[in-house]
Amino acid sequence: MQVIKDKQIIDDSWSYIADDAELKDGDISVSLARWKNDKQQLLHSNGKKGVRIGPADSVDEIAADLKDIQLVELDFPAFADGRIFSHAWLLRGRYNYQGEIRATGHFMRDQVYYLSRVGVNAFSLKKSEDLPVALANLDDFTVNYQKSIL
């Protein structure tokens, strides 16, 4: 599978591990609940670590662990839920997170430009044929009225 990262289409090395699945080595992401329950085991596994955050989750809960997390996935269960935008801004603005922030789930291609303005630098889309269009959407506007977080 491929994703957009830093305005390029690249192969994705990450795997999401469901809460009821066995942990494995490699570049893996887990839910916030699993991170909190299995943090010590995850920290001692081989590979990069990621945490998936939903709209109802609090970014504050991983703030102290951001030094150990290379990927924060912001999961859109529905495209109409804007709390994910705030999560991205908090990660970059308040916590100065420098790792990858990836939008995943049910966001619209038209939202990628606005997500990038609040700190999202990677996008996982359901259909690989949508990647070129979403990549082009990152350059939708040349003039901005407000400052970007990046």
Automatic annotation (TrEMBL):
InterPro entries: UCP030820. It holds the Pfam family DUF934. This is DUF934 domain-containing protein. It comes from Candidatus Methylobacter oryzae.
